Amino acid sequence: MSQPLVIIGFCVYVAGSCLLAYFFPQSVLAFLLVEGSLLLLYYAPASDMAKTILGSLVLLVLLPLLGSVNAYYLEIAVQIGIFIALALGLNIVVGFVGLLNLGFVAFFAIGAYLWAVFGSPHANQFIPGGFFPLSPNWFFVFLILSILVGALTGALLGLPVLRLRGDYLAIVTLGFAEVVRALVNNLDKPINLTNGPRGIAPIGKPPLFFKPWLEFFGLEIADAKLYSLYFYFLVLLIVFVIIVVTRRLENSRIGRAWKAIREDEIAAVAMGVPVVRMKLLGFAVGASFACAVGVLFAAKQVFINPESFTFMESIGVLAMVILGGMGSIPGAILGATGVTILNLQLLKGLSLWLNGLRQSGAVLSLPLLGDLSLANLPAQFEPAKYERMVFGLILILMMIFRPQGVLPSKQERQK
Amino acid sequence: MPSLKGFTGLDIALEILPQVLLDGIVLGFMYALIALGYTMVYGVLEFINFAHSEIFVLGAFVGVEVLLLLESAGQLATLHPAAILLLVIVTGMVISGLAAMALERIAYRPLMGGPRLVALISAIGASFFLQDGLRLFESLWRNTFYLNYPSLEFLDKNIPITAALVIPVKSLLVIITALLTLIGLHIFVNKTKMGTAIRAVAQDPDTASLMGVPVNRVIALTFFVGGALGGLAGVLFGIHYSLVNPYSGFVPGIKAFTAAVLGGIGNIPGAMVGGMLLGLLEAFAASYLSLMTDGAFGAEYKDVVAFLVLILILIFRPKGLLGETVRESKA
């Protein structure tokens, strides 16, 4: 197919799906079609230039426009962005360096609490003087700070444990995450650092420094809408930066060292790769991504508590990386998008649909079992509550049938 | 704990010591039973059976189901207590053992020989799948997945020893059953032909296979034995603590793994020692932490203590207290 034809076809598809999403704001499917356009673009036989332009058109113009009609779309997009950033961070540790980290969410939690404690009035409880909440402008300082804190904690955890064998390391990282969660959960006494299970609220949002400029151009947008657009672009920016950094790292001396360690540690040592230093670096880089995006998460959620940082989240992110393909950047993005949509839209949609059927008293005619009245389905049966089952199946089936993932990295494909 | 009038901290500490020891021993036996499942599988396959904690929970659920079925059949009051206990324990052990075997066949065996992370990830998937699978089953079957063990009259008695120490029959049951099982396991592994085969595969599967040991069947047997021990621990856990839900295996599972590492993974006596040590440590942390820190840190830090112990052991003594008996080739 010639390139102009591909581009025109893509534009028609995007326009069609956007119209659908515009006219059916309740429809999960319509929004899925819009999101699918990016995947389509990834596979489309067009030049990189055309792909970049079309892709940024969808991400920078169409999605925000749709989002200003239906804020829920932006909410989903922000969630996806956060998980993409997490998956890319874990992808460095698991995919590039080949170390299984089962406690990745701990770094996310550290970042989130970093901003939550100081960006809300909570810090007044242990630092006298009434300095808190810090002004919104500090948000960006903390975003930078969180990168350092993440790298530091990653290295601190890595330093003692990186000499361990692979599966021991996995359990220790799991233990580390549980320790972090237990600390966050219980450090409301003797000094109230984290407010324990009650969580922290309200957490400050980033500054709307550009509002005067918008007003200068005569754009009056309500704050709520402005914030959801703002978070969307902020996430987009962070994900973009992370993708660029990851790609640069992947093709650098460091990235090659990581992959050498992953493939054969002894050979890597023999070739003069400083294994411990490189592993530490991988741990630190992955942790700093998670920590930075944690700051953003706290600001977006306004309220956080330890419930958001369970082992479940670590496994969710791991499932994203594995589904997409370990060590593959497009894979991690696809995996994060897929799993988030599955969780937020498909499973919830299915639950709502089943509940609707149950209430309407529909009767399902099965060929062999006879008529089954859906009203008799136990109330406990809700697909949205069985995300663990779905994750578990994804992990097992992927490991048995396609361990390299849906979008494997180039090296994996060449094998 | 604020110091009581007329008592110093030390007095209180001594006062509660026997009870703390008893709690620790009960917990320790439970950890030891679960840890054996981890350590035996690790011994033959060098692989962390992450779903073992769900096999343990399965045992607890089988136990409660058997008791509830007996109750609804009106047999709970008429049958002899020993018969009820035997029935519950044996059913729990057999079903858990079979489930562990099925797990090995479906989720692990196709992956053996590949990278170890692949099998571990599959095991994590299996663990999650089983948790929600159990929840789904119980939700459809009983419309709730938090189940309470029906109270058994003969188990709710206490044996007073001194004013400070009262031994509940439940604790005694845990201790006696676990002790008998551990002795039985010791004989099985060291004196029988099948036990010898398991040790041979653990030492060197290739040579064992050359000597005519059916390696795959021995691995399946190991999963069965480990699963049955986990199931027994589950039943005892249920009887002792009453309330079970599909997710209650995660923390005991991780701790039992810690115990296995503590004793030296792959090492069967090590798992028993490690389990006992961890149980005691946890009971002491739960009771004395708040006493020692004047109430600043309480029992809620017992998990933190257990995990910190794991991290410290792996750093300073990665082969455990008794040394691991895992072949070095892949280390």
Question: How would you summarize this macromolecular structure in one to three sentences?
Answer:
Chain A is mostly helical.
Describe this structure in words.
The complex is a heterodimer of chains A (415) and B (331). Helices cover 70% and strands 2% of the residues of chain A. Chain A has helices at 3-23, 28-43, 48-69, 71-97, 105-118, 138-161, 166-186, 211-216, 223-250, 253-263, 265-270, 275-301, 311-324, 329-360, 387-401, 410-414; strands at 363-366, 370-373. In chain A, strands 1-2 form a two-stranded antiparallel sheet. Chain A is globular. The two termini of chain A are 29 Å apart. In chain A, 44% of the residues are buried. The model of chain A has no long low-confidence stretch (mean pLDDT 84). Helices cover 71% and strands 3% of the residues of chain B. Chain B has eleven helices and four strands. Chains A and B meet through helix 7, helix 13 and helix 15 of A and helix 4, helix 9 and helix 11 of B.
